[in-house]
Design goal:
The protein has 12 helices and 16 strands. 36% of the residues lie in helices and 25% in strands. The C terminus is likely disordered. By secondary structure, the chain is α+β, with helices and mostly antiparallel strands.
Length: 432
């Protein structure tokens, strides 16, 4: 017989305006969901997921039933997004642990999709059971990043798996031996983004009541920054197997488990679970076979990443539009010239009068002509700025003004080329 005790806490944090996280606590099911997809979408996705999970698991309270429940939750969120255009793109992470009885023995079944996490605190040590389904974590597994680099990588929040973003989802499933005194932690990334393993371990080791421990962890994460919603569920094994002489068993049924009625479960012991001799005695695959299987699973998982070809194409097209818009704005601004006044001297500028967006006029040439060298009735237009099509046209404009002023002062002096009478410019913003 196994008896569990739990406690939970959640907080919006200091940055978000709404809480899109949800926690589940029942007699035999515990979960954390972290919604995504905007204000409404994230809340809707997490609520749909946990409701579907609870209902489905209640009908089939087994390890396979828990995995099937996650798949059913995925379908519910996916179909809801298809029927509601304003919710397209919504999704949620989900990590859950459930007490199940199989073959007459109690066990804990644990599932995970996304980057919410489940940990096990056993014999003074905290061990992460789940693996983040994120782009940064994929790079860690392929050797491109270290764990420390992944923790601060700009792509650490890009998920490669989540519920509700496609019609099918791969579900990680573990079966765990419940040992008396063990403590399990389920949390959204709002906790692990703010607190490190040592800080979490300190709370779990010093606070006996699971509800108080959950609350203290949430408050600590909020104090350390609170940049996201924070949700924690702590589950204690009050009565379970009294196993003080051996390591607890954490067996991964599959690190890429896809629920279906025609799939055969291949029990594979996790790298931190059974020792080699015990694994061989139990008929489990060798370490070499497990590594090969994991490599195959990683390759298969890449084909289901959220960063699909369609998404990549959209990013490329969007980038091309931005580049095109930037080029058009630059052409519009730099393909214009005007004559203005700076410190009583006529100056030729490149750009739009008054500037345009982030572009400001650039001085091209100081003509040497002053306001005293041009007719007084043109000064108003010059102070506002007189547009011309090119630098040459601007020079001719200034030369004409000087020529007109010279004729006004010396009527007997013949006009010099160019003899075109300058026209007044449109009234625009004054250059400062």
């Amino acid at each position: 017989m196994t008896l569990l005790r739990s406690g939970s806490a959640t907080d919006t944090g200091l940055v978000r305006s709404v809480n899109q996280d949800l926690a589940v606590e029942s007699a035999n099911l515990f979960a954390v969901a972290d919604g995504m997809g905007g204000h409404a979408g994230g809340e809707v996705a997490s609520r749909l997921a946990v409701d579907a999970l609870s209902a489905s698991f209640g009908r089939q309270p087994t390890g396979a039933g828990l995995s099937e429940a996650v798949s059913e939750a995925n379908t519910v969120v996916w179909e809801h997004s298809l029927g509601n255009p304003e919710l397209r793109g919504m999704g949620t992470t989900l990590t859950a642990v459930a007490l199940v009885n199989e073959d007459g023995r109690d066990a804990l079944a644990l599932v995970n999709v996304g980057d919410s996490r489940s940990y096990r605190y056993h014999d003074g040590e905290l061990t992460q059971i789940t693996t983040d389904h994120s782009l940064a974590e994929e790079m860690v597994r392929t050797g491109e990043l270290t764990s420390a680099e992944a923790a601060v990588h700009p792509h650490r929040h890009i998920l490669t798996r989540a519920l509700g973003v496609s019609s099918d989802v791969a579900v990680d499933l573990w079966r765990i031996q419940p040992v008396r005194g063990d403590r399990f932690l389920l949390c959204s990334d709002g906790l692990t983004n703010e607190l490190d393993t040592a800080q979490i371990t300190e709370v779990l080791s010093s606070v006996t009541d699971p509800g108080e421990a959950a609350g203290l962890l949430v408050r600590a994460a909020r104090t350390h920054g609170g940049s996201d919603n924070i949700t924690v569920v702590v589950v204690d094994v009050v009565v379970g197997e009294d196993d003080e002489t051996s390591e607890p068993t954490v067996a991964a049924v599959s690190s890429d488990f896809r629920s279906s009625t025609d799939q055969t479960e291949a029990e594979v012991d996790d790298a931190t679970s059974l020792p080699p001799a015990a694994a061989a005695e139990a008929g489990l695959p060798s370490r070499r076979e497990r590594r090969k299987a994991k490599r195959r699973q990683r390759r298969a998982a890449r084909g289901r990443r959220l960063i699909t070809f369609r998404t990549l194409l959209f990013v490329i097209l969007f980038g091309a539009i931005l580049v095109g818009a930037f080029a058009a704005i630059r052409w519009y601004d730099t393909n214009s010239y005007f004559v203005g006044v700076s410190k009583n001297e006529l100056v030729i500028y490149q750009g739009r009068i008054g500037g345009f967006l982030w572009y400001h006029p650039v001085e091209v040439q100081r003509t040497g002509a002053t306001t005293a060298d041009v007719p007084g009735n043109y000064l108003g237009a010059l102070n506002a700025g007189v547009e011309e099509s090119s630098v040459g046209a601007a020079r001719n404009y200034v030369a004409n003004l000087v020529n007109i002023r010279q004729q006004q002062l010396n009527p007997q002096v013949p006009a010099t080329s160019p003899a075109t009478t300058p026209t007044s410019s449109p009234t625009t913003t004054k250059v400062t």
